[in-house]
Every structure is written in structure tokens, then in C-alpha cells.
């Protein structure tokens, strides 16, 4: 039995922090897991910048409410779900993901939670587990699933390496160069065909 594990940001929806950086006028917040492999370090840095600017969860959610899935993403997910089981594995947070999952037709998502203070400021993160994407893929494999994974960033590489098949989708030139073992795709139709070839 197969299950497809998809990253969310950069694969199905635009990068939330990049959108927020543009709206807030804080260019430093454009830094993502494409740039910083250490997610814990990245989040501590983001929370410090938000606090310096007096910005909290509400301001971020206001921006997220205006974000739509990438063109063709919902159709891609719908086609895939008609063929096999799909889980979105993301290092984002439930407080960010819900409106985006609604726009994608409510696929299953495993992600993390933010710790939010009474003042609405982000105080910390509650990670689901360590190495959450790799741990989830291994957990699925332990209960009888073969995993097929697609992602675009440093934090996706472990799940791609551990899966029966791993694909890079709209990744950076540096990641594509450093990890040539993963086929790379720019269009949903091509990624769908590659996944179907593994399934069949």
C-alpha cells in the first residue's frame, strides 16, 4: 500500500513567511527553510523579529487569509487523492494551516502548533516530534505503507531520502545541484505522472 507525503509551503501554497514579509515590509522575514536548514534556529529568529515590531498571531493570520493555493495545486491534490492516500507533512502550524487546507479541499495535514501569549505574541513552538517529516514517514512505513514524497526545501530531504521515491518540486538551484539523486519537476502534471509511474 502506498501513501504520498507532500510538503505544503512552496509545493502547494506560497511561502507564508515570504508573503508576510512583503505585507509587513520586513524583508528579513523572507528567510525560509530553503535558506536555513536549522528550523528551530529559524523560528527563534522569526519570533524575535516579530516581537521587535510588535506583531503577533493576528497580523500573520490576516495575511494568510488572503493567500490562495498555487495555481493548479488544488486540482493536483484532487487528482492524487482520487488515486491514492495523501498526507500533507509540514513544519508550519495549525494556526496557520487551517484556512489553507480549506482552500485545498481539506486534505489531511500533520503539522505543529504555536505557543501564543495572552498578548497575541508568539512565545514558542510546540513541535509534534523531532525530525517530524522523517519520523512520520518511518511511522507510516512501520504500519505497512510505502511512502512517496515530494518537497522543495532542506527540511524535506530526510523524508525524500527515506521514501520509496522522492521528488523535488520547484526547489532551489542549489538544492537540485546538491541532491541530484532526486528527480526534479516544475509542473504539477509532470509530478503527478512521476508519482503515478511509481504507483503503477
The CATH homologous superfamily of the domain at 2-13 and 70-112 and 128-199 corresponds to: HAD superfamily/HAD-like
State the total count of DSSP E strands. Answer: 7
CATH topology of the domain at 2-13 and 70-112 and 128-199: Rossmann fold
Task: Count helical runs.
Answer: 9
Mean pLDDT: 94
Low-pLDDT stretches are none
Radius of gyration: 17 Å
Strand order of the largest sheet: 4-3-2-1-5-6-7
Bin the strand percentage.
15-25%
CATH class category of the domain at 2-13 and 70-112 and 128-199:
Alpha Beta
Q: Give me the strand/helix succession.
A: EHHHHEHEEHEHEHEH
Apparent shape: globular
Structural class: alpha/beta
* Secondary-structure arrangement, i.e. CATH architecture of the domain at 2-13 and 70-112 and 128-199: 3-Layer(aba) Sandwich
Biggest β-sheet: count, sense, barrel?
7 strands, mixed
Helix percentage range: 40-55%
The end-to-end distance, rounded to whole angstroms, is: 11 Å
Notable traits:
7 strands; Rossmann fold; seven-stranded mixed beta sheet; 44% helix; alpha/beta; 200 residues
Q: What does this protein structure show overall?
A:
This protein is an alpha/beta fold. The chain has a domain at 2-13 and 70-112 and 128-199: HAD superfamily/HAD-like (Rossmann fold), CATH 3.40.50. It has 9 helices and 7 strands. The protein has a 7-stranded mixed sheet with strand order 4-3-2-1-5-6-7, sandwiched between helices. Strand 2 (85-93), helix 5 and strand 3 (108-116) form a beta-alpha-beta unit. The longest helix is centred in the N-terminal third of the chain and has 14 residues, at 39-52.
Amino acid at each position: 500500500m502506498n501513501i504520498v507525503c507532500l510538503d505544503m509551503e512552496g509545493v502547494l501554497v506560497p511561502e507564508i513567511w515570504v508573503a508576510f514579509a512583503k505585507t509587513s515590509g520586513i524583508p528579513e522575514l523572507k528567510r525560509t527553510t530553503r535558506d536555513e536548514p536549522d528550523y528551530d534556529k529559524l523560528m527563534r529568529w522569526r519570533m524575535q523579529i516579530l516581537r521587535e515590531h510588535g506583531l503577533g498571531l493576528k497580523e500573520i493570520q490576516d495575511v494568510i487569509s488572503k493567500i490562495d493555493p498555487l495555481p493548479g495545486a488544488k486540482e493536483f491534490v484532487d487528482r492524487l487523492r482520487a488515486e491514492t492516500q495523501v498526507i500533507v507533512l509540514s513544519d508550519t502550524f495549525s494556526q496557520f494551516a487551517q484556512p489553507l487546507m480549506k482552500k485545498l479541499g481539506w486534505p489531511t495535514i500533520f503539522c505543529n502548533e504555536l505557543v501564543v501569549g495572552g498578548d497575541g505574541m508568539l512565545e514558542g513552538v510546540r513541535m509534534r516530534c523531532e525530525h517530524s517529516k522523517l519520523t512520520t514517514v518511518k511511522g507510516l512505513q512501520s504500519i505497512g505503507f510505502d511512502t512517496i514524497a515530494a518537497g522543495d526545501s532542506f527540511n524535506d530531504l530526510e523524508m525524500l531520502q527515506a521514501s520509496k521515491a522522492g521528488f523535488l518540486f520547484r526547489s532551489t538551484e542549489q538544492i537540485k545541484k546538491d541532491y541530484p539523486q532526486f528527480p526534479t519537476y516544475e509542473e504539477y502534471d509532470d509530478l503527478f505522472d512521476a508519482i503515478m509511474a511509481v504507483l503503477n
